[in-house]
Design goal:
Layout (H helix, E strand, L loop, with lengths): L8 E5 L8 H13 L21 H11 L13 H6 L5 E7 L6 H11 L6 E3 L13 E4 L4 H7 L4 E5 L13 E4 L5 H12 L1
Parallel strand pairs: 1-2, 1-4, 2-3, 4-5, 5-6
Length: 195
């Protein structure tokens, strides 16, 4: 019989695309500025600038500007605070984001307005820096972060499914969630394996 660990996990939860549906506002702003017709489903790659006539700088500038209207950014799912609260029993939850320094106040306001409970709000310079932090589990939508997690001796990942990460192949130590309702069961599996 396998022993179940009740050790608390240190959980890093991403903001953009996992809690906040900022790409909806991004699409509206990009369409207005460039005369495009982007929809969320069109964003099947995080490196959008490689396929569409938009530069990487414009992509991130518009994403930052989207946070100027943080009140317009919906959550990724209805009742996001209640769904996130279901994972508190597994450990300490931090919001870990690569948001630019100028958008941190707006991002915090959004999280507080949504009533999502968290231990700490952590800003990193970029998504690659997340793996350098000491978390047991990363709940994230960044496709390129998952191979780093898979190769880490200690980390586990929960890839929150988005149009831009659906082509990510299965890999060791990375589980996939189509919705927040699946996350508690995945964390239970991770916690059990950790023991």
């Amino acid at each position: 019989m396998s022993k179940v660990s009740h050790d608390k996990l240190k959980i890093a939860v991403d903001l953009d695309g996992v809690l906040a549906e900022s790409m909806i506002v991004w699409c509206e702003r990009a369409n207005k500025e460039f005369g495009t017709r982007f929809k969320m489903e069109d964003l099947d790659s995080w490196s959008l600038w490689k396929r569409f006539p938009i530069s990487k700088d414009d992509f991130y500038r518009i994403l930052d500007e989207s946070w100027d209207d943080w009140q317009k950014i919906p959550p990724t799912e209805p009742e996001i605070a209640e769904k996130v609260a279901r994972i508190e029993k597994f450990g300490d939850l931090d919001i870990v984001t690569g948001r630019s320094k100028r958008t941190v106040e707006a991002a915090r306001s959004w999280v507080d307005n949504q009533k999502v409970r968290y231990h700490r709000f952590v800003r990193v310079l970029g998504w690659r820096d997340k793996i350098l932090l000491d978390y047991d589990v990363y709940i994230d939508d960044a496709p390129d972060l998952m191979p780093l997690i898979s190769r880490s001796p200690t980390a586990r990942g929960v890839l929150y499914e988005r149009p831009w990460n659906r082509s990510v192949e299965d890999m060791p130590k990375v589980l996939k969630a189509r919705s927040w309702l699946q996350v508690p069961a995945l964390l239970k599996r991770i916690q059990t394996r950790k023991s």
